[in-house]
Automatic annotation (TrEMBL), chain A:
Quaternary structure annotation from Swiss-Prot or TrEMBL: Component of the dolichol-phosphate mannose (DPM) synthase complex.
Subcellular location: Endoplasmic reticulum
CDD domains: DPM1_like
Domain Glycosyltransferase 2-like: 29-199
Essential cofactor(s): Mg(2+); Mn(2+); Ca(2+)
Family, as annotated: Belongs to the glycosyltransferase 2 family.
Domain of life of the source: Eukaryota
Leader sequence segment: 1-23
Native species: Dendroctonus ponderosae
Coiled coil feature spans: none
Protein name per UniProt: Dolichol-phosphate mannosyltransferase subunit 1
Role summary: Transfers mannose from GDP-mannose to dolichol monophosphate to form dolichol phosphate mannose (Dol-P-Man) which is the mannosyl donor in pathways leading to N-glycosylation, glycosyl phosphatidylinositol membrane anchoring, and O-mannosylation of proteins.
Pathway: Protein modification; protein glycosylation
Classification lineage: Eukaryota, Metazoa, Ecdysozoa, Arthropoda, Hexapoda
Recorded catalytic activity of this chain's protein: a di-trans,poly-cis-dolichyl phosphate + GDP-alpha-D-mannose = a di-trans,poly-cis-dolichyl beta-D-mannosyl phosphate + GDP
UniProtKB/TrEMBL annotation, chain B:
PANTHER family cross-referenced by the UniProt entry: DOLICHOL-PHOSPHATE MANNOSYLTRANSFERASE SUBUNIT 3
Pfam families membership: DPM3
Cytoplasm listed as a keyword: no
Pathway assigned in UniProt: Protein modification; protein glycosylation
Protein task: Stabilizer subunit of the dolichol-phosphate mannose (DPM) synthase complex; tethers catalytic subunit to the ER.
Compartments in which it is found: Endoplasmic reticulum membrane
Name the record gives this protein: Dolichol-phosphate mannosyltransferase subunit 3
Keywords recorded for this protein, A-Z: Coiled coil, Endoplasmic reticulum, Membrane, Transmembrane, Transmembrane helix
GO cellular component assignments: dolichol-phosphate-mannose synthase complex; endoplasmic reticulum membrane
Species per Swiss-Prot/TrEMBL record: Dendroctonus ponderosae
Family: Belongs to the DPM3 family.
Assembly description: Component of the dolichol-phosphate mannose (DPM) synthase complex.
Length: 261, 97
């Protein structure tokens, strides 16, 4: 009796030692909304393939191009021929329809049980995806968000004014909304697929206020959120903008979330 | 409850206490002797909070990490990526050369 029991335990131990990845096969769908990213797209795809291959996690990259006039889609087609239709999935749309709907559109075609969203402009480095995946696994988080404001996180290419606005806006948000998340406007995140679907359906904001609403609503719905420090390298090609209209957009978003959540 | 209502509730409660002290509905010898201080206390509290926030923001701006290494590493990887992609047969747009 005890002999069979210990034998079973032995078997279990053996099994757990030989198959450390007994967890269900996770697949990660990376959503890449693009608009005029013909210069950045090949580089970001190359980096993604390099880092995802070395991480060993199954993945696919879904490119959602909103009718870029600069030939982004043609570049994406070339990349698909190089890396294969399994890895590179093209789901273009006719015209610019906004970030929120791009995610809804992309998720519909995602075959993974996890979805990663990031910018295609090289400000988000794919090397952090591995860390986000590990973070997610550590506590079965519903959402893992990259943060520029904590630990080794940071930015490159920002002057004093930009940092001041960013830090000021962040503190104001922390005081008013108490989100328990350090980076609300970041757009480098990992979601459980069903969580992303439920969130995109309840968020109505546009632009980067959309990212803020997503994480606030996640908190409101009691989803668990983990954070990973990331370095944010501001646009290498193309221009990054932070003007008056962005600030007005942010304040309106903040007031909206302050009054509704 | 929305954050707006939480703030209104908190401000209302503190305001009520302040008003009660001011109109002597709550008897308190300290505030009776320091009436001006009591009268100005909301402004002082808001002012101190603003000052603390300003200092905190400046401190955080000052300690905001500059990711120079990450940027340099990315530049190297871009060169590497372009070479590798070319060898894989990728045609870059002319403007990108």
């Amino acid at each position: 009796m005890t002999a069979t029991l210990s034998f079973r335990l032995y078997l279990l131990l053996l099994l757990s030692l030989t198959c450390p990845t007994m967890a269900p096969n996770n697949k990660y769908s990376i959503l890449l909304p693009t608009y005029n990213e013909v210069e950045n797209l090949p580089i970001i795809i190359w980096l993604l393939v390099k880092h995802m291959n070395s991480s060993g996690h199954p993945y696919e990259i879904i490119i959602i191009d909103d009718g870029s006039p600069d030939g982004t889609l043609e570049a994406a087609e070339q990349l698909q021929r190089i890396y294969g239709k399994e890895k590179i999935v093209l789901r273009p749309r006719e015209k610019k329809l906004g970030l929120g709907t791009a995610y809804i559109h992309g998720v519909k075609h995602a075959t993974g049980n996890f979805v990663i969203i990031m910018d295609a402009d090289l400000s988000h480095h794919p090397k952090f995806i591995k860390e986000m995946i590990e973070k997610q696994k550590s506590n079965d988080y519903d959402v893992v968000t990259g943060t520029r404001y904590v630990g080794t996180g940071g930015v490159y290419g920002w002057d004093f004014r930009r940092k001041l606005i960013s830090r000021g806006a962040n503190l104001l948000t922390q005081i008013l909304l108490r989100p328990a998340v350090s980076d609300l406007t970041g757009s480098f995140r990992l979601y459980k697929k069903d969580v992303l679907e439920s969130l995109t359906n309840s968020c109505i904001s546009k632009g980067y206020v959309f990212q803020m609403e997503m994480i606030i609503r996640a908190r409101q719905k009691n989803y668990t959120i983990g954070e990973v420090p990331i370095s944010f390298v501001d646009r290498v090609y193309g221009e990054s903008k932070l003007g008056g209209s962005e600030i007005v957009q942010f304040v309106r978003g903040l007031v909206y979330l302050f009054a509704t959540t | 409850m929305t954050k707006l209502l939480e703030w209104l509730g908190g401000a209302g409660a503190l305001g009520a206490i302040w008003l009660a002290l001011l109109t002597n509905k709550i008897e308190n010898p300290f505030f009776r002797d320091h009436y001006t201080f009591l009268l100005l206390s909301p402004i002082i509290v808001v002012g101190l909070f603003g000052l603390a926030s300003l200092l905190l923001v400046l401190y955080r701006v000052y300690t905001f990490n500059d990711c120079n290494d990450a940027a340099a590493e990315l530049q190297k990887e871009i060169v590497e990526a372009k070479q590798d992609l070319k060898s894989l047969g990728f045609k870059f747009k002319d403007s990108f050369k």
